[in-house]
Design goal:
The complex is a heterotrimer.
Chain A lengths: L1 H36 L3 H14 L3 H17 L3 H13 L7 H15 L4 H8 L3 H4 L4 H17 L3 H9 L8 H21 L3 H20 L5 H10 L3 H19 L2 H8 L9 H14 L3 H11 L10 H13 L3 H14 L4 H8 L5 H4 L1 H4 L14 H8 L2 H22 L7 H59 L11 E2 L10 E5 L4 E2 L6 E7 L5
Antiparallel strand pairs in A: 1-4
Chain B lengths: L1 H17 L6 E8 L7 E11 L5 E13 L4 E9 L8 E3 L2 E6 L7 E3 L1 H9 L11 E21 L3 E21 L5 E21 L2 E21 L2 E23 L11
Antiparallel strand pairs in B: 2-3, 2-12, 3-4, 3-7, 4-8, 5-6, 6-10, 8-9, 9-10, 10-11, 11-12
Chain C lengths: L3 H13 L13 E2 L9 E12 L4 E13 L4 E15 L1 H8 L17 E21 L3 E29 L3 E9 L9 E14 L4 E20 L7 E21 L1
Antiparallel strand pairs in C: 2-3, 2-10, 3-4, 4-5, 5-6, 6-7, 6-8, 8-9, 9-10
The chains are: A mainly alpha, B mainly beta, C mainly beta.
Chain lengths: ~525, ~260, ~260
């Protein structure tokens, strides 16, 4: 009897107790929302986490999950927010906050300067139907990220599709146009190698058109340009890149005069000036203006660019001398290349063949000073500096700094002491840091591999040039001509000095800063008449 | 002296050989001048002072107006003034040739050597040595064969051009009597030659330093000399050092390709 | 050799991944300066050393210098010379010739009568400016602008008048040259100070030409004769700094 009464009592009380319990969890969500609205973000995060982990109602858990991410984002804990935005996003359209989660991922990507990890995640779960409901500006940014990712994977057709879908009013519109233009250039290169002249020209023309469109965003006058700067991300940098790439496009089309015209527009001492000088050297070489080609390379080989990784410039220099039959000078250029670049190969090979895990490579990128025992300390200075000038390096460093700051911040939040939330967030940050270090290491390794292969490739070219020099010298001897160039041919006429407003003064091994970019060679044309 | 200069020229030629690059190539800098003066009009305002007159000291304001025909040649009009021109001051009532006027001629004075020789030694320099330049208007031809650039402590960079100038014009002269009244001692032709440089601070602005030797015939008639009333004549040469600024107008505008960055 | 077409392709492909050069914020105006004086010695001979902006005296002589440069901006110099032509200008003779009041005057009460014979000094050389000059867009010369300052010793002489009735030039007196003893030391050797500046044109790595203006001055103090009332001769102490400005042109050798 007593037992039955107890059971009846329990059955009577239990629903009420349950109802009481359910009411409490909803209350906790409400309290969390109140704390969130009152900007008590640490407390809000803790409560949202509790709801997410324990609330029996899926709707509450979903809401808590999203707002947990929002709280963490507002606290500047981007990596932690990323974990929960990602969970929302990966849950798919069934999640009531799916679109918001995707938007959150985009915001985190911007905050972390990440154009690799998050975009690849978005691309993996891309849902065009659902994304159509998104804020067009955020969708545009997603399309840009996905387009960039696909471009890196060389899936140009798909990439173009995403990039073309970017809204004109979006802040990434100019970047999208630029990337499309670069794709056209790449396609131009492809068709050129396949010897399809018509398509090559078409691709370059399309690229040029897009570059002009980007420059036109400036309205070609200051007031409109200022407006464009306020409306589009990185557009000033893009304008300069457009000039450089227009030069490249004209070079690709074979219009070397126009290519030179654009190369000379790159401002002296700017980020792209070294590239412009080198490529201008090629353009002048193609126009057979060897004096100006050597002049462009002369600036590149000045003390200002002592730390520049530019092995091909010495091959070009040797090639130019070869073309005018100055074999001694050509050999000297090749010797310099060998001393400076070929000598790096054993060191680079040693590092790459050492079987080091990716993490070991990351220190080159992430640390300013390397310990002597660090394998990356053996990397030649030129190669190290050339890797560090990549804009992606700053992104990696920013990401790492952000993670380190976040780890410290998580430790310091008093409301989270002893909670599962703190442990989970600390774990997320640690995992992400390790992933970042591996990714950064992979980036460095790939770059070292690239530098190694580049130098190796040019070593082969250097050998070819050396061989040609030897065979031509043999021919000269056979023909009874002197190997000494000064006994053959004559110096080219001095370059045209336009008028007396020009200084034409001799270079004497002294580099004046204002003279960089204005060197001209007068070389002997020592090739015997055929 | 001739041997010395021949040696100098030989050294220069040897140096060209000594520093020559490979016989198969020459490297030059072909660079448009940052500060071209071709076809520009230059208006200069300078302060001048005489540095080598023993008994007289001149301070003058100088106005120059140059037209640069090209980078090397220019025509210059110069007005050097130690005293407001054409205004003679107040006439001395009992001596029609004399007049007074202090503030108009703040550019004229005698040196300590004059007072030393007069008062302490009771000696007299020639009256012609005491005649002073009041105003000079002249035309010069300027030749600028040298364009230079300089670095200050290997940090700052400045450009300058150096020139020589020669020409002539007319000068009015005056003489101060012992009683501190002045007489007009006449208008003469004056030769001017010198050299200088301008340091460009902007395309439209430069600092100028000039040295000009002004040579004229100084003649003082009918004044008390060491041996009674005399007429004393002398060819005088006064070296002026001038420092000032000049403003450049016109000329070729640098070609600007509009760039959004 | 590679054809133009494939060159184009390789170029465009290569530049897509081209790296930019690192920007350098505070790089020098001149790199690989051709004529750097740092750690070098210099010997200079100025066979042309003449006084300019003269008052009553004139000089012509030569000087020898030996410098050491700690760096391109600062050095120390040791300098000596002799003015083999030193004496009064025609202007002074002219004034004396026309004078009526020199009876009894032996030591003229004028400043700047002293002329230098030999000198030696030590000083600092400061060269803040390095440049190059382009002559008609054809020929370039590198140069240093420098300033000097220092101190040393020198010997001076001056003119006294001695009675010589019937002197063909001056009538009643003649000029005699005496060694000056006065000033700070009262001895024949006087302490001097100098300052100035010049240009060093570099002709070759070793050889150069120097053009310099230098003001050498000393403190003059001596008892002169004067007639304040025009009748009786009295003593007057003449105190002044006597400046002689030299223009020097010479050659120098750096090693």
């Amino acid at each position: 009897m007593r037992k039955i009464i107890s059971i009846i009592f329990a059955l009577a009380v239990l629903p009420g107790a349950l109802a009481f319990a359910q009411g409490n969890k909803s209350d906790q969500l409400n309290q969390a929302v109140e704390a969130y609205n009152a900007n008590n973000l640490a407390d809000a995060a803790k409560q949202f986490y509790d709801v997410k982990m324990n609330d029996p109602q899926a709707g509450n858990r979903a809401q808590a999950e999203y707002y947990l991410a929002q709280s963490l984002f507002k606290m500047g804990m981007y990596q932690s927010a990323l974990a929960f935005y990602n969970a929302v996003f990966v849950a798919g359209p069934a999640h009531p906050y799916y679109i918001k989660g995707a938007e959150g991922l985009v915001n985190v990507a911007q905050a972390l300067h990440d154009d690799t990890l998050i975009p690849s995640q978005i691309n993996k779960y891309y849902n065009s139907q659902e994304f159509a409901k998104m804020d067009p500006m955020i969708l545009s940014r997603i399309n840009f990220y996905v387009g960039l990712l696909l471009y890196r994977q060389e899936k140009y057709g798909e990439s173009m599709a995403f990039l073309s879908a970017i809204d004109q009013k979006s802040r990434v519109f100019a970047k999208g146009l630029f990337l499309q233009a670069i794709i056209h250039i790449r396609l131009g290169v492809r068709y050129n190698l396949a010897r399809d002249e018509a398509r090559t020209q078409a691709e370059y023309d399309q690229a040029i058109k897009l570059f002009e469109q980007i420059v036109d965003l400036s309205g070609r006058e200051e007031a409109k340009a200022m407006k464009a700067i306020a409306s589009y991300d990185n557009i000033v940098r893009l304008w300069q890149l457009c000039t450089l790439n227009q030069a490249r496009a004209y070079y690709g089309k074979g219009d070397y005069a126009k290519a030179v015209m654009y190369y000379t527009r790159i401002p002296k001492f700017s980020q792209d000036w070294a590239d412009a000088l080198f490529e201008m050297g090629w353009a002048y070489f193609m126009r057979e203006e060897y004096g100006r080609a050597l002049g462009a390379l002369h600036t590149l080989h000045s003390p200002r660019y002592n730390n520049l990784f530019a092995p091909e410039s010495w091959i070009l220099k040797a090639t130019i001398y070869f073309h005018v039959c100055l074999y001694e000078e050509a050999s000297a250029a090749l010797n310099f290349f060998n001393q400076r670049y070929e000598s790096m190969l054993p060191t680079l090979k040693g590092i790459l063949d050492a079987g080091l895990p990716n993490e070991k490579f990351a220190s080159l990128l992430l640390l300013d000073k390397l310990d002597k025992a660090d394998p990356m300390a053996k990397v030649p200075e030129l190669v190290r500096l050339s890797i560090l000038t990549s804009p992606r390096v700053e992104n990696f460093r920013h990401f790492l700094r952000s993670l380190e700051a976040e780890a410290k911040a998580i430790e310091q939040v008093g409301e989270w002491k002893g909670t599962r939330l703190r442990d989970e967030l600390a774990g997320v940050v640690t995992v992400q840091r390790n992933l970042l270090v591996r990714t950064a290491g992979g980036f460095v390794k790939a770059n070292l591999q690239n530098r190694y292969q580049t130098i190796l490739g040019f070593v082969g070219h250097a050998k070819m040039v050396k061989l040609e020099i030897t065979s031509h010298e043999r021919l000269l001897l056979k023909a009874g001509l002197s190997i000494k160039a000064e006994e053959r041919g004559k110096l080219a006429p001095r370059p045209n000095v336009p008028d007396e407003t020009y200084n034409y003064w001799p270079f004497k091994e002294e580099y004046w800063r204002d003279e960089l970019g204005y060197y001209v060679y007068t070389v002997r044309r020592a090739c015997p008449a055929k | 002296m001739k041997t010395f200069f021949l040696t100098l020229v030989s050294l220069t030629l040897i140096s060209a050989g000594a520093l020559a690059e490979s016989p198969n190539e020459r490297v030059h800098v072909l660079q448009k001048r940052d500060y071209s003066v071709k076809n520009k009009i230059e208006v200069g305002g300078l302060f001048a002072m005489s540095v080598d007159d023993i008994f007289t000291q001149h301070y003058a304001g100088v106005l120059t107006l140059d037209y640069h025909i090209d980078e090397a040649f220019a025509l210059e009009f110069t007005w050097l003034s130690c005293k407001i021109p054409f205004y003679m001051g107040d006439k001395v009532s009992d001596d029609p040739a004399a007049y007074t006027g202090g503030w108009l001629r703040s550019g004229h004075s005698y040196t300590d050597a004059y007072y030393n020789i007069k008062d302490d030694a009771q000696l007299s320099p020639s009256n012609a040595d005491l005649a002073m330049i009041s105003n000079y208007w002249g035309l010069n031809v300027e030749f600028s064969p040298i364009y230079g650039k300089f670095s200050l402590f290997n940090w700052g960079l400045a450009r300058a051009d150096f020139y020589v100038t020669a020409g002539g014009g007319v000068v009015t002269t005056e003489y101060m009597r012992p009683d501190k009244s002045w007489v007009d001692t006449g208008l003469y032709f004056m030769g001017s030659f010198g050299m200088g440089f301008r340091i460009f601070l902007a395309r439209w602005f430069a600092i100028r330093l000039d040295m000009r030797d002004l040579t004229f015939a100084a003649k003082v008639e009918g004044e008390a000399g060491a041996t009674g009333t005399t007429t004393e004549t002398k060819i005088r040469s006064t070296l002026f050092v001038m420092l000032g600024v000049s403003f450049l107008f016109g000329g070729e505008e640098p070609v600007q390709i509009w760039s959004p960055y | 050799m590679r054809s133009g077409r494939s060159l184009r392709a390789i170029l465009v492909a290569a530049v897509i991944v081209a790296s930019s050069a690192p920007a350098r914020a505070d790089e020098p105006v001149v790199a690989n300066q051709l004529y750097d004086m740092g750690g070098k010695f210099e010997m200079a001979l100025s066979p042309v050393s003449m006084s300019i902006v003269d008052k009553y005296t004139r000089h012509f002589g030569f000087s020898l210098g030996f410098d050491y440069f700690f760096n391109d901006y600062l050095g120390i110099e040791l300098d000596a010379g002799y003015n083999y032509i030193n004496g009064d200008r025609k202007l002074l003779n002219e004034i004396l010739r026309t004078a009526q009041t020199l009876d009894g005057i032996h030591k003229l009460p004028l400043t700047d009568l002293k002329h230098m014979t030999w000198f030696t000094n030590i000083g600092l050389v400061f060269s803040p400016l390095y440049g190059k000059l382009d002559f008609s867009s054809e020929f370039a010369v590198s140069m240093h602008l420098y300033f000097v300052a220092g101190a040393g010793v020198a010997q001076y002489q001056y003119t006294e008048l001695e009675d010589d009735p019937g002197n063909p030039e001056f009538g009643s007196f003649k000029k005699v040259t005496k060694t000056y003893t006065g000033g700070l030391t009262g001895a024949a050797v006087q302490p001097t100070f100098h300052f100035g500046g010049g240009l060093r044109f570099h002709i070759t790595q070793g050889w150069g030409i120097k053009l310099e203006i230098r003001d050498v001055f000393f403190y003059d103090k001596y008892e002169a004769d004067w007639k304040p009332a025009g009748i009786d001769v009295q003593q007057k102490t003449i105190k002044d700094f006597v400046h002689i400005v030299f223009l020097r042109l010479g050659v120098c050798y750096t090693f």
